[in-house]
């Protein structure tokens, strides 16, 4: 899954795609580089980022989804916690929803996804975008992530979402400090208990910066190491900015796992 942030302030690629045309061209280049899915997002979740209302988020996301769809994009995902934005993106041709709140922020999201019959990523996040970076505390981080994702799956089911349309994500860096994110990566196989495909988003994140003491623009090798750890631990999807490089990492890990004969 390639990341296409159409926000003025995302932490690692914010402001890069000033125009719709530039964003569409970048999205197409992610598919050419080997992405199976491109995830289009119009709200930054960076600490301290300004909240975006649904109308502004729609204005950012919809033309880019429409442009990509018109130019033959493969699978398109919309990264939003708002049902209104997701509905507009699905109308414009998106195929699936990536909800980092795991259906917690907008009660209309579950019913929308159920009605449209599209896949949904349920990510683990505690609190909201404002509070999630304030000293997250866990007794047993992976145990609690698994249980809270299980609750998210139940929330989806009670909204009428078919279980086979759900994907789970432990939410690296969301209400997790660097130690928590590293422990989640170390214990990733425990997510198999949920019996759903697993998506992980380690790309350029601050836990890599904490280990390597490098800014977001210099975390390519750190991201490669984290992506390898994810794939070798059984992740089915990885959400990354540097698609060409990470596609090689994934192919290599698949070969090591014996899943892709050379
Ligand atoms: N991370 C970000 C945004 N959306 N969605 C999922 N499912 N998983 C993630 O880890 C995730 C996400 C934040 O990173 P970005 O600002 O580079 O998009």
Q: Give the tally of β-strands.
A: 8
How many domains, as an integer? 1
Sheet-strand content, in percent, reads 5-15%
- Unreliable segments of 5+ consecutive residues: none
| Fraction of helical residues | 40-55%
Bound molecules: pterin-6-yl-methyl-monophosphate
**Oligomer category:** single chain
CATH topology: TIM Barrel
Alpha-carbon Rg, integer:
17 Å
- What spatial form do the alpha-carbon principal axes imply? globular
Assigned CATH superfamily: Dihydropteroate synthase-like
Structural class: alpha/beta
Order of SSEs, N→C? EHEHEHEHEHEHEHHEH
List keywords for this structure.
single chain, 262 residues, alpha/beta, TIM Barrel, six-stranded parallel sheet, binds pterin-6-yl-methyl-monophosphate
Description of the structure:
The model has no long low-confidence stretch (mean pLDDT 93). The protein starts with a strand and ends in a 6-residue tail after the last helix. The protein has one domain (2-256): TIM Barrel. A 6-stranded parallel beta sheet has the order 1-2-3-4-5-6, covered by helices on one side. It has a two-stranded parallel ribbon with strand order 7-8. It is globular and about 40 Å long. Helix 1 crosses helix 2 (54-70), helix 6 crosses helix 7 (206-212) and helix 8 runs parallel beside helix 9. Strand 5 (120-123), helix 5 (141-158) and strand 6 form a beta-alpha-beta unit. The protein is built from 9 helices and 8 strands. It is of the alpha/beta class and 262 residues long. Helix content is 41%, strand content 11%. It has helices spanning 20-32, 54-70, 83-91, 109-116, 141-158, 178-186, 206-212, 220-232, 243-256, and strands at 2-5, 37-41, 75-79, 96-99, 120-123, 166-169, 199-200, 237-238. Bound molecules: pterin-6-yl-methyl-monophosphate. The site of pterin-6-yl-methyl-monophosphate has 18 residues, from strand 1 and strand 5. Residues 3, 5, 10-12, 41, 45, 79, 98, 100, 121, 123, 169, 171-172, 199, 201, 239 line the site of pterin-6-yl-methyl-monophosphate.
């Amino acid at each position: 899954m390639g990341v296409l942030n159409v926000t003025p302030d995302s932490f690692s690629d914010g402001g890069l795609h000033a125009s719709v045309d530039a964003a569409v061209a970048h999205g197409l280049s992610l598919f050419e580089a080997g992405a199976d899915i491109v995830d289009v997002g119009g709200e930054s979740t960076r600490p301290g980022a300004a909240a975006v209302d649904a109308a502004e988020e729609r204005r950012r996301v919809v033309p880019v989804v429409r442009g990509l769809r018109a130019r033959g994009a493969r699978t398109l995902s919309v990264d939003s916690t708002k049902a209104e934005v997701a509905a507009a993106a699905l109308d414009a041709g998106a195929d699936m929803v990536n909800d980092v709140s795991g259906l917690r922020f907008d009660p209309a999201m579950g019913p929308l996804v159920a009605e449209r019959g599209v896949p949904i990523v349920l990510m683990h996040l505690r609190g909201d975008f404002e509070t999630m970076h304030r000293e997250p505390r866990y007794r047993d981080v992976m145990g609690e992530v698994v249980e809270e994702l299980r609750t998210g799956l139940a929330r989806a089911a009670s909204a009428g979402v078919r279980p086979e349309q759900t994907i789970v994500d432990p939410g690296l860096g969301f209400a997790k400090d660097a130690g928590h994110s590293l422990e989640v990566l170390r214990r990733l196989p425990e997510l198999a208990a949920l019996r759903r495909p697993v998506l992980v988003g380690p790309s350029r994140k601050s836990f890599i910066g904490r280990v390597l003491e490098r800014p977001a623009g210099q975390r390519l090798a750190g991201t490669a190491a984290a992506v390898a750890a994810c794939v070798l631990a059984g992740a089915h999807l990885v959400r990354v900015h540097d698609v060409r490089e990470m596609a090689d990492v994934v192919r290599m890990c698949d070969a090591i796992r014996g899943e892709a004969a050379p």
